[in-house]
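In response to a reviewer's request, we include the raw inputs and outputs for one of the modeled complexes. The two entities were modeled together in a single run.
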Amino acid sequence: MLIKIKKPWELSENDVTSVGNYKTRRDFIKAAGIVTAAGMMAPYGALARTLTAAANPYDGRDIKEELTDKRAILGYNNYYEFGMDKSDPSDNAHSLITVPWSITVDGHCEKPGTYGVEDLIDFNALEERIYRMRCVEAWSMVIPWVGVSLSEIIKKLEPTSKAKYVYFETLEDEAQMPALLRGVIKWPYKEGLRMDEAMHPLTLMAVGIYGETLANQNGAPLRLVVPWKYGFKGVKSIVKISFWEDEPNTSWMRLAPHEYGFYANVNPEVSHPRWSQAKERRIGDFSRRPTLKFNGYGEEVASLYAGMDLRKNY
Amino acid sequence: MIKDFKRPILHLICLAPSLWLFHQMWLWYNFAPHSLTANPIEYITDFTGDWTVRFLLISLSVTPLAKIFKFKILKYRRAIGLYAFYYASLHFLNYMVLDYFFDWTLILEDIFKRPALTFGMIGFTLLIPLAITSTKSIIKKMGKNWIKLHRLVYVLTIFAIVHNYMMVKADVLIPIIHASILTVLLGYRVFSYKSKKSKRSNKQLSGDRKHEAIVS
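The model returned the following structure tokens for the whole complex.
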């Protein structure tokens, strides 16, 4: 059995007030069994083993935060490909087909090609990470993700020395995504990270939430989670990973360059031009709470931005 | 006996969205299932803001509809305008109390540093004198000045829609629709004002000719 040492960002489950909906490990193993029966075979079955291994009382930081209600995580989403209202993705995303799924890898790397989810994600090495998620709209959640460090995937793809940035793309398919026709954003949805951000151990490629595989509206079958950045950096339902020499022009930068920058680090001192980022409303709370710089992960990531003017590089 | 049975029905219709909202808030308060999403305060902000603009546009539509279709609805215009103020007040109170809970540093920063909020505040501020001067006795006292003052409603509706347009994150469809409706309503005003003016000058012109004829 795996004994895992908790890293400081992994809020211990002991620190988290349990939520009625959260599946116990036993329930989870059952759920995984059903998934296997549905034909997804070994990878998803392996999820349960990892969760069993995830039990560890150690937590480097003393944070006591409640997990966000599963219903809110499933029902309150920004996924414009399925509609503009927060409830649209949960209403419409059933039309997304996630099996089979393929991810195109290209650019400056030794292993370009087309991959399946299980080619990139080692389902025997899944970790549960409880992260804060701060939306640029000044609301936030605490989400128990399941996934692997993005760095594990990048290492497999062997980027060359020319690869300075990693670029991601969401699926663009009008047949599966009804709201694409509205053209609010120039599809497909594009995101990117600097290589050191992508390689940071906090950066997660998630395949699950609350011990289950991702719901479509949460970005199934695999999505990015960068907990110290605003939520929109967490590109969903990824079909393309590219290694670039130049900084990618991401979807929100394209839409409103003076409002959304490439870095999009959570920063209470740098306001959105139209609203303050000093405070946020945790979903389920009544009043706002102060927003933490780098969403509370400054100890781990602030050094990535040493010497940079965060007002200019928003 | 009620002279005008339509009036209470009108009040009920105008109050309905807020009554629904209060009911949903009551459910939320009691941890019962409600329709305010996982982020109720944001939902209330959007809901009350949308209804403010809708009532402003409805109140501006009353006169054209009455004149074009000869509907006898002019007497309801004032009430509808006051409902716009009612929803605007709910919108403002939600922002001050539920959303920011009198966090003056943030509120003042919002109002003075962010144009989107500034426009909203200007719009709401302009609506206040219109609401105050809506009693019969004040209307009588003010006479023609009342009409002049209440022309502010065009200006403040523009502010309200610009505020909405600027606050939206990406999807500007609704504010664009509102702006188009306002453009049509303003266009009607300009058109009817111009045609009135030209009629008047025509009359004057023909009067002058008559006068000339007499003189010559």
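As requested, we also summarize the result in words. Confidence is low (pLDDT under 50) at residues 14-53, 55-62 of chain A. The radius of gyration of chain A is 18 Å.
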